[in-house]
Amino acid sequence: MWDIYLIISAQTFALDKNMKFKIFLLLFLLGFGILLFLLFLVNHINEKANDARQAFDKYFSKRDQPPPRIPRTDEIPIEIRQKFASAPVKPKLIAEFSHGDYLEKVIFSPTNPDLIVSMNSKYKAEKNIKLWNINNPTNPIAEFGGDAVSISSNGEILAISDMGNFDEPVKLWSIVEKKFVSSFRASGFNVTFSPNGKHLSLEKSGLEFWDVSNPAKPVEAFKLKSEKWQEDHTFSVDGTLLATIESIEDIVNIWEITGNQAYKKNSFDAIHRKVGWIEAMQFLPNPKNPILAIADNDYGIKLYHPPNWKDYTTISAENVNDLAFTADGDTIISVGISKIEFWSVKKGNRYASIEGFSRWTECVDVSADSRYVAGGGNDGIIRVWDITNFLPSVQNHTPNVVVPIYFLSTNRMPQTDVTEKIDNILREAQTYFADEMERNGYERKSFEYEKNEDGTAKIYLLEGISDDKYYRKYTDSRVMKEIEQHFGTENNIFFVVVDIGNEKTPTSDEVKKEIQKIIQDFENIDAHLKRLRMEARNIVYRKQEGAITIRESSNEYSIDTIVSKFVELFGLTLDYRHPSYLMSYEKKSKQLSKSSTEWLNKCQYFNSVETYFDDKTKVKKLSPTIGKARFRVEDADGIYQVRLLVAPTKKYTPKYYNKKTNASKNTTDGKDGFRRRAYGLHDVMTLNGKKKTTVKFDYPNHVDNMIELHVIDELGNRVYVNIDISGNPVASVLRSIFN
Predict the structure, then answer these.
(1) Sheet bearing 331-335, strands edge to edge
(2) In the chain, what is the straight-line distance between the N-terminal and C-terminal CA atoms, in Å?
(3) Cα 732 vs. chain centroid, distance in angstroms?
(4) pLDDT tens digit string along 345-389?
């Protein structure tokens, strides 16, 4: 009996064991199948998203394409042309060629600025790495397949890592002889030549260094040991320092390289315990001051300073996907959304940009002689620009000034006294602000504009590409598009007088149709803006500069109107709190409020600002108290003033909205028109340098859930944030009570 039990038990155990193995195998296959499905789904979504981006870019690139250039009807006499300054020349596009698909990397040869290597994702093409000569960009010199590529410091060897090739994972290819030199077995996704060209590093759990001083016979040199995978690394210009990034946590390690040894010098958290990742990392090319520039997905470039690597300053960039330094170390070049941007390492300000790219730019590099800059992105096009004369001129440009421009269509001649007119307008506006600052208890100061040696306004003559007819529609955007082809639009305000002549007097039916079209456009824009505000809620934006555009032939621009346009670009908004305020639309309004002059007192256009580094402003919505909306505001630069803005609605017209002379007309116009008007000032708090505080504002008497907070810090940096105050049920109840 006992024997039978043992036999049955053994069979049961064998059956259980066999069943468990089958269940394990089934679960394993099921999990593997789910994993494959997820990988396929992610790849499919990525491809669809990329196709959508391409279609979006293609659609918007066709919108409002400029017409062919129309020759000037009559040549401008030399004596008139000499009254104006010539418009500066922007960088010249010298090459534009297609790599194909979504570009991930573009690299100049360290010794030959005519040679470029480009790369996209390997899964997109079998030969995804290409070597080009920019003087003959029709066909690449050579094509390879791989996961990473690097060029030796002498410009003679390409190193290609191909993880899919188990027999020859790393290959060395001679650029001079145009053939493969050698290959060796070593695992690592990324490969990088050391600055002296002796070593080739490969990323894995640590780093693996190979001696490639003889490319025909690579020899393993040493290993940099680490418990975690190193997903990116970069050398200092003299090769004595190495920065690596630990995967997942994005901890940056600083190593000192001595011969065939690497010693960890420091370690820091580049993401500061936030959910994020590092996009790009480069050392400043200065062995005496090897600052480490790191761009993460949190909008900004941080400059970490040796020797402790704990202190850093922040350049307020937006999306940054890649960066590079010019050879002199004075400029950081970055790419992100549709443009290449140039930043001062010393001051932190953006002083120029190059447009002409599709929506996303992913990679950038600058030639060793800083003559060329190349970039590429999601359209697969490599664009190379000559910045030889451009870079020094914009580096010496004075920021935070008003730039006067006289814009002339091709069928018109300059007005003989227009330079005097523009000079007088700017002087009057300058005096207005100085008077208002003094009246409110501050020193007499105002904005500055570009001047000639004799003190008169330096007015640039910009000749358009077309005649009056083209510029009469969408005047501001079309004129500004041409201005951007010549001027760096960062850290400047443009005062543009457009000479395009008057149109013929329209009929009453034409006027009615145009008004109806304008109303429809406003409603469409309003709906779009509301959607954008909801999508952008709680995101802090930095204020950008712009342009004041007036028509020379129009007589409707009083000095008050022009000053109001300046006020808006200085960061101030509509202010209906009292009828005497300039921004109240009251017919007799002349003055700036005390709080407005407080804002201008810190505005960078009213001060000689030496630094542009901007510590991030943080704004958090707090639970309200009775009758008060509360927000937590933090800025290491010191908060100077916080402004609460609300949108007037159809049911609520501001008390001092008096644009019309007839009171009943004001109410009608307000109820109908305020749905489409910009936010107006509701309340102000001046904090005089507090770095972290809670601000309390009276609840606004309106029913719109979206509000804006505008903040200016002690350095004059301006930001704003859209906030949805509808999410808190207590807030909704309080708002309904106080409304």
Answers:
(1) 92-98, 381-386, 372-377, 350-366, 337-344, 331-335, 322-325
(2) 90
(3) 36
(4) 988 888 888 887 777 889 999 999 999 999 998 889 999 999 988
The predicted structure's pLDDT at residue 2: 43
| pLDDT, average across residues 12-31 | 62
Taking Cα atoms as reference points, which of 733, 684, 675 lies closest to residue 708? Answer: 684
User: C-alpha distances in angstroms, 315 versus 236, 348, 476, 492?
Assistant: 21, 5, 30, 18
- What is the share, in percent, of the chain residues with pLDDT greater than 70? 74
Question: Could you tell me how many helices (H) and strands (E) the chain has, helices first?
Answer: 11, 38
Omega cis (within 30) before 306: no
HSE-up of residue 99 (Cα within 13 Å, Cβ side): 39
pLDDT bucket at 561, cuts 50 / 70 / 90: confident
Q: Using one digit for the tens of pLDDT, what is the confidence trace for 231-266?
A: 788 999 999 999 998 877 778 999 998 888 888 899
DSSP state at residue 234: E
Residue indicated by tokens 């149109």: 503
Instruction: Tell me the CA distances in angstroms from 398 to 460, 488, 547, 609, 712, one per residue in order.
Output: 15, 11, 17, 11, 22
DSSP string, 492-551: EEEEEEEE--PPPPPPHHHHHHHHHHHHHHHHHHHHHHHHHHHHTBT-EEE----EEEEE
Contact 199, 193 (CB under 8 A): yes
**Triad 624, 625, 629: Cα angle to 5°:** 45
Q: Which residue has the tokens 């600058």?
A: 366
Q: Which amino acid is at 67?
A: P
Q: How far is CA 464 from CA 88, 461, 480, 485, 646, in A?
A: 14, 10, 11, 11, 39
Which pair of structure tokens corresponds to residue 87? 């418009």
Q: What is the largest CA-CA distance in the chain?
A: 125
Scan for tokens 């909801």, then name that residue.
Answer: 534
Q: Comparing C-alpha atoms, which of 299, 302, 249, 245 is closest to residue 274?
A: 249
What the block records as the tokens of 490 is: 């960062």
What's the CA gap between 53 and 144, in Å, rounded? 27
Q: Which residue is associated with the tokens 């909205």?
A: 657
Structure tokens at 225: 């040991």
Query: At CA 263, angle to CA 257 and CA 264, rounded to 5?
Result: 115
* CA torsion, ordered 495, 496, 502, 506, to nearest 10 deg: -70
CB 708 within 8 A of CB 629: no
CA count, 13 A, side-chain hemisphere, 416: 1
The C-alpha atoms of residue 322 and residue 106 are separated, in whole angstroms, by 10
Place of tokens 């394409």: 65
By DSSP bridging, strand 547-551 and strand 492-499 are parallel
H/E stretch holding 687 reads strand 680-698
The larger pLDDT score, comparing residue 334 to residue 556, is at: 334
Spatial distance between the Cα atoms of 422 and 327, rounded to a whole number of angstroms? 41
Residue whose entry in the numeric block shows the structure tokens 């992610």: 42
Length of the chain in residues, anyone? 739
* Contact partners, residue 685, CB within 8 Å, separation at least 6: 641, 642, 695, 696, 697
Compute the distance between CA of residue 253 and CA of residue 314 in angstroms, rounded to an integer: 19
CA neighbor of 494 nearest in space, from 507, 484, 502: 484
Residue with tokens 């003679």: 156
